[in-house]
Each structure stands twice: as C-alpha cells, then as structure tokens.
Amino acid sequence: MNTIDVKAYAKLNLSLDVLGRLEGGYHAMKMVMQSASLCDDIHIALTEDGSFGVQTNFGFLPRDDRNIALRAAKEFLAAAGMQGTGARLRLNKRIPVGAGLGGGSTDAAAVLRGLNRLTGAHFSRAALEELGARLGSDVPYCIAGGTRLAEGRGEQLTALPPLPDCGFVICKPGFSIRTPGLFARIDSRRSGVHPDTDGLIAALSAGDISGVARRMYNVFEDVLPANCREIGEIKQLLLDSGALGAVMSGTGSAVFGIFSDLAAAEAAQRKIQGRCRECFAAAPVGEAETE
Fold this sequence. Notes:
Distance between the termini: 15 Å
Number of helices: 9
Structural class: alpha+beta
Largest sheet: 8 strands, mixed
Helix content: 25-40%
C-alpha cells in the first residue's frame, strides 16, 4: 500500500491565556484545547521518484513549501531516513482559513500521523510531536488531539478528562484577524483578567458541561480592534440560540458555542446559518491514533 486517507480535525480553544513573552519572540501560553469533528480530508500518496506536490480545493492556498502540510511530509520522510521517497498530497479543506481553528496545523499533524502509519516508521507520539513543533506551535497538540492542557508556546501537553458529550456550533465572519497584531496588543494590555483554567479543568473532571461552558474565556477578546465587533455579535447570537457558553477560538476570527448535545447544536446551526459567512455544527473528538 502506498496511499492513505486521513482526517485533520479542527482545534478549539476552550480557554486561552497569554502569560508573557519567551525567548525567540514566542509567548508563554496556557490553553485548554479540544478537537472537533469539523475536518479536512487528506489523501497521501508516496512517490518512488522523490517528487513532492500538493493539491487543494482552496485555490488561494500555496502549493509549494509555504504549505505547512507539504513541509510536514518532507520533515517526516527526512526524519525516517527515506531519501528518494516523496509524497503527493490532496487536501479537501472544510476548516475555514484564518479562523483560529488550526486548519494549517491540523493538516500538518494529519500528514505526520498518516505517514507514520503508511510507512510503518513507528515513531512514538512524543517523536511526532517533536517533529511537529518544528513546523508550528499548534502542531504538537493537533497530533495528539482530544482534550488537553497546552503550555509553553503550546507544545507542552497534558492530557485532561475528555469533554462530556455535547455539540458545537462554529461560526466564522467574513474577515480574518492578523495574529501578530493581536499579540502586540496583548503585550500592551493593562487588564489583569485571566481564564479560570483550574476551575475549567475541575469541571472537566466532574463531567460538568455547564461548568466548562461558563468558564470558557479567551484573553484575545479583550484586545480586539474596534472593527471586529461582529465577533461579540456572533457570541450573543449563539447564546440566544441556546448555547451554554460561547468564545472566540485562538486569535480568531471564528467563534464557537457549546450546546447540551449535537442535536441542539444542529438545530441552532440551521437557525443561524445565513447570518454568518460560514457556520458548522460539530461534536467533540477524542485523542488521535498515531500508529
């Protein structure tokens, strides 16, 4: 077999805190992350002539080494000592780009996991996460998946009790947000408000979905530019549609709400669709298989 199909699941930030700056221009983060069933589909085919390539249904995405999924394939095959072997990728993307949902990072992670199974290299999860950290801060989490605490620049992961059964509605407005600009704003903020991460983890341990939803918080919402007020409007729309809580994911611009179950989320998605540029219903996904 020289082909494999893998899914790349979106990541959601149940909470996101920025604790300060690290060396090398990175920031110290503390985040509770969750995988969602909204996903990209990736077809991977090994090549015997050492060639690499990527195709995607999003025509504006790069098809050279600027594409993180393609770089992931090259990193993996080099680490596996498979000189002379290449890979061609076909990405069927559903996860919105520039949304804070980890679309590029989760594609890279899925390529690393898929190649690990396809080649029989048998890299451990820790080894794959180390490879992923070279590509981007969210890639190690996207390799692991499930419900996890992410610290450091995002690569230090701790497994948490799984999120209880619930549903999500994920909405992206018709704009994206420049991540560097938000980090600059967070560095100069005066607010001392932080997420109740410990309380959120305790709610996960208790299987209390309402307690989780009440504690969702993203410090980047405190420093959004004035032209991003639609994010607050979407949060209110989700709450008015029955969400137990709503929050922006990552540096945005996507917002998601937690609902009591998938059926409630699907009903809300049908109600909201048309009022947001992109709107999806999804369910929680557990940790990923790496071999």
